[in-house]
Each structure stands twice: as structure tokens, then as C-alpha cells.
Design a protein that fits this description.
The complex is a heterodimer. Chain A has 31 helices and five strands. By secondary structure, chain A is mostly helical. In chain A, strand 2 and strand 3 form a beta hairpin. The chains are: A mainly alpha, B mainly beta. At the A-B interface, helix 3, helix 19, helix 21 and strand 5 of A face strand 13, strand 19, helix 4 and helix 5 of B.
Amino acid sequence: MSNKQNLNQKKPSFVSAPPKEPKKETQPFCISAKVQKIMPWCYAAIFAVIAACFLIVKNSDTLYMAQSHNLFMNTSEYFADCMSKPGGLLVWMGTYFTQYFYYPTTGASILIALWLLIIAASKYAFNMKSGWTILAIIPIAALLCSSVCLGYWIYYIKSAGYFFTSSLGLLFTLIAVFVCRMLCEKLKLVWVILWAIVAYPLFGWFSWLGTIYMIVAYLVNYKDKQMNKFIIPIAGVAVAILVPIVALYFYPNTNASLAYIAVLPLFWSNEDFTTIAELPFVIMALAPLAFTLVSKKENAGTDIKGKEAYALLASIVIVFCASYYAADKANIDDYNYHAEMRMYRGIEEQRWNDVLTEMGNIPGDATREMVLFKNIALLNTGKLGSALFRYNNMSAEIYKYDSLEVHMVQTAAPLIYYNHAKTNFAYRWCIENSVEFGYNISNLQNLTRCSIIAGEWDVAKKYLDILKTTTFHKEWAEHYDSLVNNPKLMSDYHEFDVVKELYDHMGSTLDGDNGLCEMYLLNYFSNTMNKDSKLLQELTLAYACIQKDIQMFWPRFFLYANLHKGEDMPIHYQEAAFLYGNLEPGSMDISHMPFDKEKVIDRYASFQNMSQQIMRQQKSMTGDIDTKKVGELMKPTFGDTFYWFYFFCRDVKSY
Amino acid sequence: MKKSLSIIALAALLAACGHPSVPTSYSSDNKVPVIYPDYTDVVVPSNIAPLNFAVMEQGTEAVARFTFAGGEYTYGDGKKILIDEDEWKEMLAASKGKDIKVDVFANNNGKWTAYKSFNITVADEDIDQYISYRLIQPSYVAYEDLSIQQRDITTFEESTIYSNLSVSNEEEGQCINCHSYKNYKTDNMLFHMRQSFGGTMIVDNGNVKKVDLKTDSTISAGVYPAWHPTLNLIAFSTDKTGQSFHTKDIAKIEVQDTQSDLILYDVDKDEVSYISREENELEIFPTWSPDGKTLYYGSAYFVYTGRDHDKPDSLQSDTAAPIAMETEMIQRYKECRYNLYKKSFDPKTRTFGERELVYDAVANEKSATLPRISPDGRYIAFAEGNWGCFHVWHPEADIQILDLKTGNKVTTSPMNSKRSESYPVWSSNGRWIIFESRRDDGNYTRPYIAYFDKKGKVHKAFAVPQKDPSFYTFFLRSFNRPEFMVESVKISPKEFTSVAKTDARKVTFKEDAKK
């Protein structure tokens, strides 16, 4: 303005040289109010794309698993149960929305929509300049990270409704801050106190978080006059501190040490606390405090100019780059972690060929859980003897980023035991895991299946009644209604055929698995003999092969041969018999056995030749033989044989 | 206009709160309707909470008409029959010693069916106002959320006595169990806590203390307790307990004691001494006679051989190391059977007499546990199964009652089912027995109450009523150790929590008594 006025004061002179062109002052870089208005929409759109990429494209299987490890019952008892702990409303709402991950795109869209609402709520709660709503991306980026960084914690986290509770909590908190901003001083005081009291039972730790936001916003924008500056802060802090303490009298099931962090997800494992997984929630909680720095000031222009504009542009770039980088770093992209979940679902839905395809596609070694899933699929497709060793049976380590100890009994044992007809053990681990981590859909379905197989119709009906109160598993439950009301219909439900046959032919004894599912199954079945069920007998023979126990193998092999007279002997059983006959010629005369010349006899000869050749080479080069290396070199040619499995599949680490 | 709207609104409100009308046209079905919980033809106390139930017949709607001496009421809310508490009290008061007749109508696709009437008989006698129980998932090894609850069974009020979550955290959990009261009153009571902040919480004349009952001379801390009815003494069993899992049997779990004895804890002196530690005997579940002069308990004769019973005789070796007691017990679990015994007790000298056999269950290839003496001292109720001590997992287990005067068994079939029944407890007036039953689904334990009339006859048992009749369906925890109380627990959960966090006072072992 002042420059303009100076120019106007200068008048042209006739005596002097023609006036020079006035120096044009460079206009500062300015982001107009008009442009700013559309900026939050742009932020929202860009973030939505990033979030969709991580949630829907990269984590659909995780989201589906999240809903199957969730339980929302549409009953008043469930609501009352949630409300019996501080923050109950968040848990109730969180578990409700988690159901929508049944369709991962739908659930993810709801979650993203909530995050976009958080942007809007942040803007209004802190009266942020539109352009600076870029900062509102920070807490939701943290929430995105929290959604993709779970890893195996998905089986262990005890925070029901994990994916939604924090987003909902933050949204409600910001709305409360907005309401506070709109009130006059005296009503502000009432609101801050009311919020701290009412919000605790509903939203847990967000009650004091909201109080802090309100106080900070109040202090930053304090301009008056009507009340001492410190009345609201002191009253707010006092009430926020007192409420959880007083609430302990009403919540006898709440530990005083956890009272201030009710509903905050905690990552405890084996007495270790995982700080890194907690970080997103810390960032989420702290970020809104920065919003007060960019709130609109009275009488200030609406344009953002100069340094501020550059700072804003830089912030936009930094926030989005950092968000993407953080989400990418946080995201668990371990192939086996995701493949396990796809295979788990495949087993649940009895899509056996999909399970086998998944197993065939793994780029490296498989986890033990995947190996067992593959065995189940082979059992159900009748390919145990012909394909058991065609797949990679080597052990890959479970992906870990902290001290969490993953045990199969807590991830997939109920489903694995059930499919091996060890229904009591499946039932046990369903209950154990439900006791520790809460009942969920997957466990209830497994409990139902086990109860049906064991003929415990009344308890099956109970579980079905519970599943009928859910949104997306009602149909599954109704499918079994007529069966539990009329058990004679069992033969019409072919999904139980294989398990039922195994179950009917197994004996009962007192036993225990010591928490090792795979070892128990291998020991149990390889030590079993059954002449009445071809299916059970095949499983015992297959598992005897896996045990690599020659004495255990022969009686099961001959029993198999007797039960399958006139049928072709599957290739792996031939391989095992031929190998054992050659390794211990004294133990069994195999000269009369009609082995497949090309696939068994010649291949074994090639196997021997190749192995000796490699070993000779190794010895001549290094003076030593590295069996592991030999195995690796032979794997492309013989990795689909029992021979290779017998000699080179070592160091199986069950967990 | 405003006025008429108000009248319409009021009328609508009254209609919503009012009693449904019984259908005028219906077809009749000559069978008693299936209702849940099953309250057909039961005898109930004159102060019990409303017996709300759901009609399990086909249809979408049901109405029940309750006809009693003072008139009739009708109820219906979908298929649920939810009785107004004040009206129920009115019905009970008017029907003492008489029947309330219940007619149920169900609407299936617009067609009403009237079922055969059934009666709810109201006994002359009241029931103790409170019960307490532990809520626990039917768990195996893991536990997380356990609480001891108290319920006013004349209403639907329930509150927490103590919850382990008040002290448990992710680092270390706490198991709670075995709540017990002195003579149905709560000024003297106890419960155990194990692992985190472990110890036994003793309420001694209203004061809470925490003690550690484990001594170097005893197998374990006190386990199954029994307060002496008049003295500040508590009999406990001390047990080394293990569990193993059935691979197929629907019993699922076998809980076994490999060692157990009985001890006496003097609350005033914080001293324990042996009551019984006989060789080759597994003593368990002590209970006092109402006069406090006799201690009853279960005991199994079990001799450990050290032999591996899974091996055929041909493979046995004399030089082989003996197998562990736990392993042998698992191998021979069906051989472990308990009889009921008693020992006289002299309250003055605090000495026990020789043991006497009360009930020979083993002779019938049965196992009797959890004895409780009726308040008049005449009857002993207990749980009986085929073997073992933990009958909650044994589907064949039933409640039995022995007349100590005649030695005859009372017919208890009306209170039993084809599924597990255990843990019988007499009410303070001896007219009611509360017990655990898995009759609903075989897996989740529910509290049932049976009337035991003056003539010593047992009547059909009924589930402790809940406000919502579908409560038991959706509730995924078991009701464990139901106990009667004549008053509520006065110590607050917060107070228990404060004491729970303190160190337990170590008790001393009284050597003389050991000898």
C-alpha cells in the first residue's frame, strides 16, 4: 500500500528526463483464499488414494482376517458388556465397523471416510486456515500406519475394534473441541468439565486427550476478559485427572494402572512392551496440538503469502512424502504373512485348489502353518501320496519386528486341528485363545464345526445363535440351522465328510500337545494304524513319511497297499518304499515290488548320480561337503521327490 | 389440538407398556410349550425374581397368561415373556403354597396356537436373598477375565465382589477362585488369588487380610475351603492338581489331584495344621456339619506303583525308573474314585477323631465328591460321577442326596439331567439346593435351584432367572461355585483390590498337630 501511495505522489516534470518506468515490486507468492478453499479437498483426495493403496491393494487379506478375529453381537447384552469398561462406546462402535472388513473394500472405505471426517473436524475444531489443513493429514497418516503395521499382532492384540477405535475416538474428540470453540467462556468451562466426566466411560483415554486439546486451544486463543485465564485449564485438568480415579469405583474390572489409557491399544508380549507399534498413537495424539499454530487469527487476511506460502507448499510435500514413506515402512509386506491369511481363508471356505495354488506360488520357503494348510488341502483333494513333497516343505522363519512370540496354537491351530479331526484340541485352542484375546468369528465358527462333528448339537446351536446376531455371518449360521435341529441331515452337509470320517475312526485318550500343534499331529497320526478308514490310513502313512522313520513306514505302507488293492500306488509312497528298501536292504525285500521304472527307479538313479557328482565336485574344490548347498543345487531337479525331502529337508522349526 | 395429541401420545405409551391381550381364536396343542429357561411345573421360592422366559415354539410372537389367586396378568414381547417385577411380587404373595397357572399362546404366520397349561408352584419358604459365583470361561489353561459376582436373586441386581482385572495386567495375570462364607454370612469370608499378587483373601469379622497358606510342610496353599460354622477356623484341602485333555471324549478335560491332604487354618493365630494326610489317600473337599462337631470330606484310595501302565507287561522292567505320579494318574485316571468320610471334631480341644466311612461310592464303581450337609444335619448332598473329583467335566455326574438318618438315598432325578451336575449347596433354611449344571448345552455351567421339601422330596430344578431370557444363550462364561448368602458382601471391590496389592502374611505350620 505504502509503495503505491509514494508513486502517486511523484508528479512528472517537463525539465527532467522522461520518467523512468516505475520499478515494479515483485508480488509475494500468494495462495489465495479461493485456492485454499479447495486445498483440503485435494489433501483428502490424495490421502484417500494413498490409504486405499495400502489398505485395499496391499492389505485386503489382513482386513478380512481382522473381521474374522472380531465379534460384534447385535444384542443389548453385548452393548452392556462393552460399556462395563471405560471407553466402552468406542469398543462397541469399533467392533461394529470392523465387521465391514468382511468386504475389505467396503470396510476400508468406511475407515478412509472416517479419516477424511477427521480432516474436516480438525479444521473446524482448531479453526485452521484451509491451506494448513495439510497438518490434519499427520494424525490420520499415523492411524493408517497403525492399520498396516500390525503383522502377527493381529492374532494377539487385545484391543477389540482396534482398526476403528482410535479413529472414532479422535473424531469424537475433535468434534468436542469444535463445540467448545463455539461456546462462550462460561459455557466453555461447563463443557470442558462435562466432557471430561461423560467422555471417560464412552471414549476412555480420549476424555483427557480432548480436555488437553480444549485447554491448549483455549490458551492459544485466549483474549478475554470474562474469566481468569487459568480457571478453565485448572478445572479441566483437575476433572480429567479425577474422573478415571473416581471411575474405578464404578468399574471394578479396571486396573488402576491402566485407568488413564483405557481403550489405548497396548502391545504387550511376553512381558515386553513394543514401543514402535505404539508410536502411531502417540503421533496421532500429539499432532493436533500443532493445529493451534495455524489457526485463523482475527483481522488476519485470508490469503497465505510469502514465506508462509512457501512453508505451506513445503509442508504439503513433506507431509505427503512422509506419510507415504511412513506407511510404506510400517506396512508388513512379508509374502508369507499375507499368504498364510489367504490360505487360512481358503481352508475355511474349503477352496482346496486355491490353497494349493497359493502354496505353489510362494517365492521362498513356507511357514510351518502354510505347510500344514497344504497338507490339509492335499488330504481333501486326495493328493497326499502324489503331491505331498512336490511343494516346498522347508521352514521359513515367521516375520517379526519385535519380541512378539508367534505360536501356531494362537494363530491357526484350531482350524488345523479341526481339519485333522482333532476336534477336542481345536475346541480347546478356540477357547484358550478366546479367553485370552476375546471371542471372535473364526473361533465361533470353529467351535461350531467341532461341536457338530462331536455331536454336541446344543452347544453348536448356542454358537450359531451368537453368529446369527452378527451382520455378515448370519447366513453362515443359518445354513446349519436345519442340521442342528435335525442331526440326521448330517450326510447332506458334505463339508463335514472328510473330518467326520477321520473323527469316526479315531480313538480317544488323555493327551496334551504342549502347545506344539504340528509336532503333536505328526506324532499322533504317524503312530496311528487304522484299517477301517482309507482316509485315516493315508494320513497316517503320509505323516509317517514326513517323520522319516523307516520302521514306522513299512507297516503303514503295507496296510495302505492292502486297503488299495488294484489301485496305483501313489508316487511318493513308491519313492519312500524304494528309498528305504535301498537304504536298509535287510529290513525289507523290495525286489518284487512293482515300482514305476521311469518315475521311481530311474529317477532315484539320477538323484544318486547327481548328488554324487555334486559332492565330488564340492570335495575337490573345497575339500568338504556342504549338504545344504548340495540340497540347494539339487532342488530344481529333484525338489519334488521324497528323496530330496528325506535327505535335504532339515531344520524344521515348529512353533 | 395440542391436548388431543397429548392424549394420543399417552394412550400409545400406555398401550406400549400394557399387557397384551390373549388371542380370541386359536387352535389347541395338547403339549406343554417348549420354553427357555424351562420353568414348566417347577416349585419356586416365594421371593424369587420374575421367571422371564422365551417361547421356543415356531412363530414370531407369543403371549403368556399367568392366572393366580388374585387375578391374572398377560405378558408378551416378541417371543419373550418379560414379567413386571411388581406384578410378579404380587403374584408370589398371593400364591404362597399355591400354583400360578401359565397359558402360553404362540403366533405362527398369523395363526395362534394355545399350548397345554403348566404350573409354577410357589413354595411357602423363601430362599436366601443372595448368591455368589465366579464367572469364568470354560477354560483349560489360560484365563484372563475372572470375577466373583454376587446376585440378589429376589431381583436382577448383580454386582462384582472382586475382579482379577483390577490387579491383572499384561505382564502377569491373576487367577481367583474358591470363595467361601462362614455360615451364610459375609463378615467372615474368603477367596484365593493365584500368581500375580497371590494369596488368600480372608475377611475376618469385616476386616480384610491377605495370607499365604503355603508352608514348607504342606503340599500347597489352601485350596478347597470350608469355614467352621461357629469358630474362626477354616478347613482346607491342599492339592497338587493337574489336567490333561481327552482327544475325542466330549468330557474334554480331566482334572486330577496327584496328591492331596486336609489342613486346618486358625484365622486368629495364622496357623495351619494337618487334619488328615493318610498314606495312599487323596483327601479333598472338606465340609462341616452345621453344629461344627463333624468334618465331612471325600477321599480316594490310590496307590502309585511307578509302573508305566501304557506298556504291556512283557515290556515292563524292574530296573526302569518309576514314572512320574502325574503320568501314572493320567494313565489310571479311571481308577481314582472317592468315597465320603467324616471325622469328629472337638471344638474345645480342636482335635479330630478317626475317620469313618459315610458313603461308599467305590463299591458302586462311582466317585463321590463335593459333600455338603443340610442345615438340619440330616442329609448330605454331593456330586457323583464315574471317577475323579472334578465332576463339572463329567457328563454322567449327578447330584445325590443321602439321608444320614436312614442311610437311604433320596430320589434326585428331578434335579438332574443327562449332563453334568455338581457343586450342590443348601440354602440356610435347607429347603433349596443350588448347584452347577451343564444341562443347557453340555459346556457352559449355569446355576440351577431345586426345591427340597419338608418330606425330603426333591423337585424339578430351574435356572436362576435372568432379566433377559436369552441371557444364558449369549453368555459365554460359566457360573462356578454358586454359594448362598443371607446378606451381601459389604467389602467393596476397591477395598479388596487395595488389600490384594499388599504382601501376603505368611502363616506358620503347627508342628504338634502334624505329629
